[in-house]
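pinned: reference chain
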Amino acid sequence: MKLALVITHPIQYYAPVFQLLAKEVQLKVFYTAKKRKAFDPGFQQDIVWDIPLLEGYDYTFNEEQPVMENLIAFNPHYLLIYGWACTTHVQILTYFKNKIPILFRGDSNLLQKVPWYREFLKKLALKWIYAHVQTALYTGTNNKAYFKKYGLKDSQLIFAPHAIDNIRFSTYRCASTVRSELGIKLNDLLVLFVGKFTSNKNPILLLLAFVKANVANTHLLFVGSGSMELNLQNAAKHFSNIHVLPFQNQQEIPAFYQACDLFCLPSNHETWGLSINEAMACGKAVLVSDGCGAAVDLVTPNNGSIFKHQDVNDLAEKLEYFLKQPAKLEEAGQQAALDISEWNFNNQSRAIIDSLYA
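pinned: its structure tokens
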């Protein structure tokens, strides 16, 4: 069986899935963007991932041979497209409609409100796009609701869990080194944010809420980079227990998750929020805004909590609740590791294979 997979560029969360798929079908991945430049606008710096993204499967980039020409020559039995916000992807959808079964993967949701006129135009466009799709592989509850709103039926939807490398993140790292280098005592509690320092991720809200909660013997650590980095550094320098560290690559970042006691993602909006998966895989309690697509699927009262996005008081109250109950944090972290175990690459790739016969 020949499966053609269309996606813009190599992504660290998808490459392991492609490697698993390549063991079961004749897979070829068609990257529609040119070979990715190192500069990441969100992190505002050059990013070269330190894990292999192009091993274990066949692939081609757009500049090596035109995608459409290459796809036709490959002559696949099935086509799987990741995302539609690219002219080339829409052209591929249009060309292959009614020729071979088309599967679609995306993680959009309905959590972000838009003006009615934009929603009207969006609905027209998306219903047309998804009319080309036989099966959509949804990531979770919010993503499923999105697909249904824009025309897909339950019979066309297959759950393929959003996942990260649970094994790599749960493998023991020397987290004590992270804490000691920051001057964090053994019994102090550490709250962690990992990601891009952007207004949408809203790290400033977490800083303000942490200061407002004002719980003794606690620390807050931001790890990442982005447009708000200077603002965070200027705010943090007034507090000895608030730390800002630069971007850490994939091999180093698990140690930072493992060093914390509570992970917080305060984003205004996230289609999913895979850093939540990463923290849970490390056995950490999670405190997540209701603007994150993953919140409804991953976060429960037993492994963490959800707060109202952009509400500093709600976030501060929940921070104070957890930081004053170290035993509760430890229990929630243990439960988080159990809860995330089924959200893995094997189950995602199996769902994709199963969808070929749906």
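why pinned: The mean pLDDT is 94. The chain has two domains: 2-163+343-355, 166-339.
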